[in-house]
Structures are given as C-alpha cells and as structure tokens.
Here is the input.
Amino acid sequence: MSRNLLVVEDIRFVNAKICSIGKQHGYTVHAAGDLQTALRFMSDIHFDLAIIDYRLPDGDNGEAVDYAFELKIPTIVITAKIDDELRENILSKNVVDYFQKDAALTFDYIDRMLSRLDRNPEYSVLVVDDSSTARVKLVRLLKRHRFKVLEAANGREALEIVDQDDTVKVIITDHEMPEMDGIELTRELRIKYQKDDIAIIGISSKGNSAMSARFLKYGANDFLTKPFCEEEFYCRLSHNIDSLEQLWQIKKSANTDFLTQLNNRRHLSEIVEGFGNYGKKSINLAMLDIDHFKRINDGFGHDVGDLALQQLSAIMKKHFTADVPARFGGEEFCIVSENLPPMQFRDKLEEFRLEVQNTPLVHNGQDIKFTVSIGAVYSKKSLADMLVDADTLLYKAKKTGRNKVITE
Here is the structure.
C-alpha cells in the first residue's frame, strides 16, 4: 500500500535531499517549495506524514504547519531558528517532532526519524498508571509516534498483560498505584525479564533523586519526573528502544552464523539445553552435510560453494520453520525438533532432501546440482551423545550411496 509523504521546503537542494530520503523509506513523495503548492497538495491528497519548513517565502509564520495540524497530518517541523516561544507554538500543534536545521545533522536526523517511525509499529508499549487522565496523555504521545499501546491500572494487571503478550518491549509505569506499585512491578518483571528483553521507564510526581535511585536499583532502565517535557519523553523513549535494538543485534550476531543466518553451534546448545523436558523427553536430532562439497569448491570456486550453503540454508528454513536448524561449520548442519513424532520428522527430512536434490544452484547460466546425506536419531540422551549417534548414521548414509536419510 502506497504511503504519501509531503515535503515542504523552499531551498531546492534541501528539498531534493529530503525527498530522496523519503523515497528510500518507501514513501511516494510530493514536493512543494512554497505555501500555496503545499496547501493544494494537502487539499487533494491524503498524507501519512509531512516534513515542513516552518518559514516559507509566502508563509513565514507556520501557516503550512497550521494547515497540516487542522487536517491531522502527522508532521515533522524543521526550522532555521528556534526560541522558547516558537518551540511552544510548534509543540502545541501535536507535531511528531521538530528539529532546528543544521548542515551536518538535518538529513541524518530525518533519516533516523523515518527509520524509527517505520519500526515503532513493531513494538507494544504498556502504560501502567491508576490515573486514567495520565494514561490518556501517554497513550496520545505514544500513538503519535506509531507505537501500539496497551494499558494497565496497576502492577498486577501489567504482569498479566506482559505474560500474555510477547510484543511488549517497553513498560512505562507510575510509582503510586493500588495493589502493586511501580517499584514492586519493576522488581517482579526483573525476576522474569532481563534489561535486554524489556525496557522499563519509571515515572513519578515525587521525582526526587531517592525515587529515581529506587527505580533504577530494582532494574528500571530510566526514570522521568512528572510533569515531564514531551521532548524529553520522546528522547528517552527513543534512546531506550535504540539500546534494546543494539543489544538484540549484538545477541543475534553472537548466536547466528554469518554466512547462512542460521543458529550457530553454541546457540543450538543453549536452545536445546533450555528445553523444558531436556533429558527427560525424547527429541529428534538430525545431522546432515552436502555430498561431494569439495567438488563444488574445487570446480567452481569457494564463492559458489558459499552460495550452495546459503541455498541449502534457505530450503532448510522453509521446511523446518517450527524447529531449530543450525550450521555446525563447513558443509555440516544440524536440525533439532522438540515435539514431532519421529516418523513425521523423518518424512519432513525426506521432503527436504528431495527439494535439495531437485533445486539446482543457478550460477552464470549453469545449473549446479548437489544433494545431502542425513542421519537422524530420536532420543532423550544428552545433546553431545545425540550428536555422536546422528553423526554415525550420517557416516552410514555416506558409505551406502549418499543422498539419503538414515534413522536409527
């Protein structure tokens, strides 16, 4: 579905640069260099977002911003100069944000803001406050930045919501509430969730240093004193989400094979050993590798060998979406399935093997066919013992003709 962005800026190269950034984020961009053109666009087109220069040659008192406000168009305001009076006027228009023009930072800011607005709908923010008036204000601010928002009137309600909705990544909680206050809620949440799982921002009208310290000691990521400035609220919220995303990326890099984007061997061990019935209930484990992989590397080069590994991984992800595939290294892979009956797991392995066999790698107009051999076990042994047993069956598949699945 097309998204429309209005860019209103009278300096041509600035206008063109902002339009380019908007297009990179998937918007259909409509550019105006003056107030009259901007008003005509806003009258004729539904806009999902506007980026508007506050002062234009034919409207130097924010008329374009005023009209966007009347039409309820989410707006980012840019301005060459700012003072307290102008700042208050801009913020009264319920804008998404404003930014003072800076040759070194303006375009980077716009790019980051559009990226943030693109990603924010992925996250649910839980607002916890016994005051419905306070919740309404926070919900309004959050929805302006496209977050999904949930509400709770006390800590106990909040715990129930978090347990049922794994999209909650930020919790903004007041302190004084009936049944369970904000600090106790923070404590209970930190028993279950680490700081890289969920960010907690404490708020209180009794915002002294002692209150802030208590929230932080019990595991809050941040603290705000009521009444707070909207700009500070957005800055702290964005900072905490940026920190979460950076931590997630670091964790993903540590747990993921760079070439194939599958789990790596270390992370596979963590996942399997974290199964609730690990060692008590039998699970499926398969070891596999590409037959005659050396021939691909020697005949076509290691770059083509890497493409073969990536294609194999893509087929593996397609067939084992509910399971745990991993790359062990080289051309060797592993798949773990916790809940499938062994015969059903074997059938999935066979379907996977056939698709690999029938899907040649196309390189420079040439079809390069390859196959896989697979050994699979169903056991409640330790992961290390299962790997040895599956590897023995894989070796048997190699010795008896390759391109087959052998189970115990």
User: Anything to note?
Assistant: Residues 3-117 form a domain with the Rossmann fold fold (CATH 3.40.50.2300). The chain has a mean pLDDT of 93. The first strand starts at residue 3 and ends at 8. Residues 1 and 402 are 48 Å apart (CA to CA).
